[in-house]
Design brief:
Length: 483
């Protein structure tokens, strides 16, 4: 089973310290979230797993950590200044503001048989005479207009708010930091094609309609990789990355039934993409219509040679340089064939926060006890679980038991994340660890003082096993790897 809806996870996340509404004591800040102790561990584990899989376990990968604020020219030549926008419309009656494309999508879903009169508005076709305002029910719209999603800021103490020479943006994707460093990495690390550059970091988008918990926020984290290949090899390599990424999510426990591949139709493709396949997760299982249950978890795009060309001082068109501001040519010289060309780029791009949401939803299970009580058990993959083992004393008023339990926690913690907890009866302590996904509980009891052994309880089966303290670390590590 998985969580029946996102609300179940919102409540668990707040109750157990994974995620809290941000700025809550001041009334919150729409769709901003703070990660608590367990949420921070979970995010770090997702990023660590991705980095290990993407960078450390491969021979063709380098890492990078580029700036969040880049020279404004980066966003001019990448196309973001011109095209990274959502079409907005205002209701002239009640002054509410909406994304025109979303209104249109919803309308088409509700009226599949009806023929729409589409009015081309330069930005998006919008059926202005049919769609009622979801707020007031009237039909009186402004023309759609483009709203750029990049957050603006000004650089320098003396800069005026509207000084165009000081204008800068918070990056809306980590990818551009990779493209502008392509030659730096390729030459310093002596790389030949094919190879990739991976980056994890924050991105910012002034989303018009953020929401659904951590699914869509204005500040979020991305795990992106740009894989550079010879033109002509791009289609095969693209397909390989689609399969690898799909398998990565499955290897970390996401059920195949809750994952699907979605081929973006041509009209949805970004200006740089030749083909994009998204991995969808069933984020909305409560929706009646199957098609509306899915949304994007990650995208895998074939970006062609668009970005490297766009940021290069070459090429020339009609005797004039297309990019007048770049000082570098980001083309590649192939020693074997003595050819110079712009590599094609395959880009797997995932969101840390959306991945965390999918892992939480998929891990959610409920189990009934002998006493007919419902318990939540979060069956997170052990590598993602925020805590690997909880050490629990059976009697907290017995100093020898408490001392032994604390020393076991200290003995375990250099090799795996362990906690000590004595703030309840053993049943309550087990239930708390089940609910946050801790794979093993280690119970220290009176007998432990005599036989130097403890009880190890498995989160998924609730089975218990007696293990010698001296063998405990090795035992837990072995079972964590097996799970
Ligand atoms: N460089 C390509 C790129 O950024 P994208 O599909 O716009 O592609 C990649 O973003 C991933 O980043 C998405 O699949 C999603 O997981 C995550 N993402 C994008 N916008 C987000 C937002 N507003 N909130 C949370 N995650 C987001």
């Amino acid at each position: 089973m998985a969580a029946p809806n996102i609300e179940t996870i919102v409540s668990l996340a707040k109750r157990r310290g994974f995620v809290f509404p941000s700025s809550d004591i001041y009334g919150g800040l729409g769709s901003a979230w703070d990660y608590g102790s367990l949420g921070t561990e979970l995010c770090n584990n997702v990023k660590q797993q991705w980095w290990r899989w993407m960078v450390h376990e491969r021979d063709d990968m380098e890492g990078i950590d580029s700036s969040i604020i880049l020279n404004r020219q980066v966003w001019k030549y990448s196309g973001h200044e011109e095209t990274f926008s959502d079409p907005l419309v205002d209701c002239k009656e009640c002054k509410s503001r909406f994304r025109a494309d979303k209104l249109q999508e919803e309308y088409i879903q509700k009226h599949p048989a009806e023929k729409l009169t589409i009015y081309g508005a330069g930005i998006v076709s919008f059926a202005q005479n049919e769609i009622e305002c979801p707020n007031c029910g009237k039909i009186n719209w402004t023309e759609p207009r483009a709203f750029n999603l990049m957050f603006r800021t000004t650089l320098g103490a003396a800069a005026e708010e509207d000084d165009p020479t000081a204008l800068a943006y918070l990056r809306p994707e980590t990818a551009q930091g990779i493209f502008i460093n392509f030659l730096n990495i390729q030459t310093t690390m002596r790389r030949k094609l094919p190879f990739g550059i991976a980056q994890i970091g924050k991105s910012f988008r002034n989303e018009v309609t953020p929401g659904n918990f951590i699914f869509r926020t204005r500040e979020f984290e991305q795990m992106e990789m740009e894989y550079f290949v010879k033109p002509g090899e791009d289609e095969r390599v693209h397909q390989e990355w689609i399969d690898l990424c799909f398998d990565w999510y499955k290897s970390l426990g996401l059920a195949a039934d809750n994952l699907r591949l979605y081929e973006q139709p041509e009209k949805e493709l970004a200006h740089y993409a030749k083909r994009t396949v998204d991995i969808h997760y069933r984020f909305f299982p409560e929706r009646a219509e199957d098609e509306r249950q899915w949304d994007e978890l990650m995208g895998i795009a074939n970006r062609t040679d668009f970005d490297l060309k766009a940021h290069s001082k070459k090429p020339e068109r009609d005797g004039e340089r297309i990019n007048k501001d770049s000082t570098e040519d980001l083309s590649y010289f192939d020693e074997a064939t003595k050819e110079r060309f712009y590599p094609f780029v395959i880009e797997p791009a995932a969101g840390v926060n959306r991945s965390v949401l999918a892992f939480l939803m998929d891990a959610y299970t409920e189990r009934t006890t002998d006493k007919n009580e419902t318990r939540v058990v979060l069956k997170l993959h052990p590598s993602l679980a925020p805590i690997k083992a909880a050490v629990l004393p059976l009697a907290k008023n017995k100093p020898e038991i408490v001392a032994l339990a604390k020393s076991i926690k200290h003995f375990l913690q250099p090799s795996l994340r362990a906690v000590y907890d004595d703030t309840g009866g053993i049943g309550k302590l087990y239930a708390r660890q089940d609910e946050i996904g801790t794979p093993f509980c280690v119970t220290v009891d009176h007998q432990s003082l005599e036989d130097e052994a403890v009880t190890v309880r498995d989160r998924d089966t609730w089975e218990q096993q007696r293990i010698k303290v001296a063998d405990l670390r090795e035992h837990l590590q072995k079972r964590l790897n097996e799970k």
